[in-house]
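Thread: quick sanity check before group meeting

JM: Hey all, I'm pulling together slides for Thursday and realized we never actually wrote out the predicted structure for the chain we discussed last week. Dropping the sequence here so it's in one place. If anyone has concerns about the input, flag it before I start.
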Amino acid sequence: MANTFKGLSELADWEAPAAPVHPEEAVPKTPTTEANNELPTGEIRPERGSNKPLQLHYNIQVHLPESRDPAVFEAIFHALRKHLT
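JM (edit): ok, ran it. Output follows.
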């Protein structure tokens, strides 16, 4: 990261004036306690945009071993069900 910063610093024009910052963007908004109480448990309201809660999606890939024994696959899927629910 330091090398990237140094490399970009060499390309930067340090004499140019900084871009103007809008007052809304200067201070990050944090949800208030009241706003958190209005949302169902586990849902997070995005700071900008729609009023829909933030949705997180997980993609889990399972690389199955080569096996003709169905018990191997049953054990794998049983373990997944146990630990993901």
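AS: nice. The chain has a mean pLDDT of 77. The CA atoms of residues 45 and 53 lie 5 Å apart.
JM: adding both to the slides.
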